[in-house]
Amino acid sequence: MALLIIEKRGVVVCLCLVFVLFQVSINGEVYKVGDDAGWTRTIIGNVNYTDWANNKTFQLGDVIVFEYNPEFHNVVQVTPGEYRSCEVSSPIATYTSGNDSIAIKTEGHHFYVCGVPDHCEAGQKVDINVLAAPSPVAISPPGATAPPSKVPARPRNDARPNNYMQLGWVVVQLLMLAGVLFRI
Ligand SMILES: [Cu+2]
Questions:
Q1: Distance of CA 71 from the midpoint of ligand 1 (Å)
Q2: Helix H or strand E segment including 64
Q3: What pLDDT digit, counting tens, does each position of 153-166 carry?
Q4: Per the confidence metrics, is the pTM higher than 0.85?
């Protein structure tokens, strides 16, 4: 009986560990484009969006926030060619709220410009280059010798509302796993 309790405690510890690892892996960073300057004309905000993006390491699950006055600016996702030429004819997506949160769901380059005439030409454009996704965390059956996890050491402290659903799903999965293990 005592052995069983110790075993159960071990399983609980394992589940907690798995939960923590999941939490680390699914909480994306939130990046406000231009930091304090926000999304504006480069001459007004004194901001270089190329430099701003080059100093970041974007990953899948990160959220890019464009904050701006919608009377003067907008956000248009464009093709690489349109990004270079600043001639926007077939936008991939257009955002106009003034506080647009865009979750990054695909790897590679994501090009955004301001669609107001002359703003892109003046440098109000940004290339969000998203690196390949980190390896997913594998759940090993309790008792099996698990290889060291490949969760990135990068701290991810900002739990944002858009992650709460994912967290909820993880909790449900863990509870189901616990149900199986404990034969509830
Ligand atoms: Cu603009």
A1: 9
A2: strand 63-67
A3: 444 444 444 444 45
A4: no
